[in-house]
Amino acid sequence: MLTREQMLAAPEDEYMNEAQREFFRSLLEEQAKEVRESLAAARAQLASFENEPDELDKAAIEEERRMALRFLDRQTKLLPKIEQAIKRIDKDDFGYCEVTGEEIGIKRLLLRPTATLCAEEKQRQEMKERNFRDN
């Protein structure tokens, strides 16, 4: 299997060849496994919290519970994105911007393998969001 260095050194005309798709499939499958394990651990942690009679202990436990719930929320949203990325690999759509059809790029995909937008389109969308929010 390819390494990250080999991925970055690959010629542009070999973008999203079979070996690169397999690299990302393996990476995404490993991430999905880790997310499922962390979700199970976070749920077990939430279930283990007990009510403490001491007010200071209650506050600390509530803060830990709040943090665990935020983590669960983020991980719960990440898992479907990973699964969708794997489906895009199966359909040979992986690595291409869903809006423009341009290459997302190996560097961006190594940082965020669930990316569906090229950097330029992502910036355009963020600018629109910022302008909408400011108005």
From TrEMBL:
Q: Which UniProt keywords apply?
A: Coiled coil, Metal-binding, Zinc, Zinc-finger
One Pfam short name: DksA_N
Signal peptide per UniProt: none
Domain Zinc finger DksA/TraR C4-type stretches: 93-126
Species of origin reads: Reinekea marina
Positions of dksA C4-type zinc fingers = 97-121
The chain positions of domain DnaK suppressor protein DksA N-terminal read 20-89
Protein name as catalogued: TraR/DksA family transcriptional regulator
